[in-house]
Structures are given as structure tokens and as C-alpha cells.
Amino acid sequence: MLAKRIIPCLDVKDGRVVKGVSFVNLRDAGDPVENAKFYDEQGADELIFLDITASHEKRKIILDVVERTAEDVFMPVTVGGGIKSLDDIRSLLNAGCDKVSINTTAVKDPYFISRAAEKFGSQCIVVAIDAKRIADNMSEADGEAWFDDSALKDVILDPGLLQERNGGAWAISTHGGRKMKLINAVAWAKKMEQLGAGEFMLTSMDKDGTKDGYDIELTKAVSEAVSIPVIASGGAGTLEHLYEGVVSGKADAVLAASIFHFREFTIRETKEYLRERGVPVRL
Question: Residues 62, 12: contact at Cβ < 8 Å?
């Protein structure tokens, strides 16, 4: 069995690390480069920067963060947030990141993932899936033109069947959690793998920031549906939650923010805990 990865996530807003609950109520959690150096020294396997205020005008802020991080940090770094073009990917890779994470642009144009994978290689294309359990009042906010593409029809959730909860179902969100789409998260993962994604960052919007544990049912459903790595995200509050993510959820990696940022647990403590419980990790 391959070693399971422990990945701290840094949400970056205007050059600072922030943390919130269910994508809102943000509070400051320090300088991103200093945080990255700290996690590198502790032995984190990878690091993810999410640029939550990304725009064309502010892109230089995260590029500067990545460049400064790459000077002193040697673990793989993934950057997500506001990636809209192949040029955006090229700029981030040139700045020193190893992978990019894409969500909204993939939903707007699923074949962007194919073009990105062909240009840069699947190994550096991570598709972020922000998933939320379906509710009776969910409706399609603003349909995309590609819904008419017959090759993509099988990912759409039928509004008339939302009350059928056979084993659970999840819709996905875009624009940093601000817009819901009636797209089946599990079917979407399978489609993204077919189109060239190399990895998934799977976040439960219901669990994000709650510290109640990952949505294990969601994580397991996606992990079993695809053959590429899945990073479990959203809800880690204890070391037991991380264990559940890789064992019960069958994730290849577990992502956490609050428990690491506010020094509740160290990376070393986390890895020793998992190893003692039979989970292969890199120490």
C-alpha cells in the first residue's frame, strides 16, 4: 500500500492565511510563506495554497507567495483559486508550484481539463470538487451551455429525483462555494478522470470548518468510483478523523487546516498516530 499523505491547506486572502467555517467568517492565521516553512520543517508531505480572492488584478500576490515559498520549501506545492486559462497554469508552474487545482473553470468548460492535461501533464492537474448533500430546495442556479453536450448529460442531477436519497447524493459548488450546480459529484469525478484529471481535492461543504470529521460516505463514494488519488477535505478536527478519512473513506491523502494552523496537532504527531494504527506514512 502506498504511503498516505498529510496535507496542510492554506487559504490565502490578499497575501494572508485565513480560516473560516463553511467558507465564511474568516479569521487571520498568519503569513503564508512562514506557515509553509513551518510545515516543511515538520515533515508535511505536500502543501496546498488556495487563493480565495484570486482575480487577474490580484494574481501577482499569490505568484509572489509561491515564488518566495519555492525558495525555501521543497515539498510539493499545489495552488488553486481563480485559474481560468492555460496561461494562468503556466504562470503558477513557472513561479514554482508543482500542481494546480481547478474547480469553477472545469465546470464552465470541462474540456479545459483535457487541454490542460495535454499541455502540462495530468500529474499536475488537480480537479477540486466542493460537494454538498442534496436538499429538497436545491435548484439549478444558472445552467451552463455545455448541459446540451450529450457526452456530459450523465453528470446532471435530475431535480425531480432529489428526494431519492438512495445511498446519498451530492451536488457540486463553484465560485468558492457561492454557486450550486445540480451536478452529481461522483459522476463528475468519473468524468473529470476521463478528461485527464490526475487527482481530486474533494471538499465537503457541509463539513468544512466544523471539525466534526470528513463526510466519509462522500469520500468513500468518490474514492471507489475513480482510480486516481483523492484528497479528503473539509471537517478534520481530531487525529481519529484523519484515520477515518484514509481507512473508512479510502482517501489517498487527508487535508486539514484549523487543527494544524492553530497548533492543536503537529504533522509529526499526526503521522505517528496513523503509523501506530497501521496506516503507512512517510516519517
Answer: yes
pLDDT greater than 50 at residue 142? no
DSSP conformation class of 147: G
Distance CA 102, CA 79 (A): 9
Whole-angstrom Cα distance, residue 177 to residue 196?
24
Question: In this structure, what C-alpha cell is assigned to residue 250?
Answer: 479510502
pLDDT tens digits for range 214-252? 999 999 999 999 999 999 999 999 999 999 999 999 999
- H or E element that contains 33: helix 32-42
> pTM for this one?
0.91
- Yes or no: say if 174 and 102 are a contact pair by the CB < 8 Å rule: no
pLDDT at residue 178 is higher than 80: no
CB-side exposure of 116: number of CA atoms within 13 Å?
34
Strand partners, 105: none
Query: Which residues form the catalytic set?
Result: 11, 130
CA–CA dist 27, 19 (Å, integer): 5
Share of the chain above pLDDT 90, in %: 65
- Exposure of 129 by Cβ count < 10 A (0-12 exposed, 13-18 middle, 19+ buried)? buried
Q: How confident is the model at residue 98 (pLDDT cuts 50, 70, 90)?
A: very high
The C-alpha atoms of residue 165 and residue 110 are separated, in whole angstroms, by 27
Average pLDDT, the chain: 88
Q: Which residues of 195-229 are buried (b: 16+ CB within 10 A; e: fewer)?
A: bbbbbbbbbbbbbbbebebbbbebbbbbbeebebb
Q: Which stretches within 50-157 are classed as H helix?
A: 59-72, 86-95, 104-108, 111-120
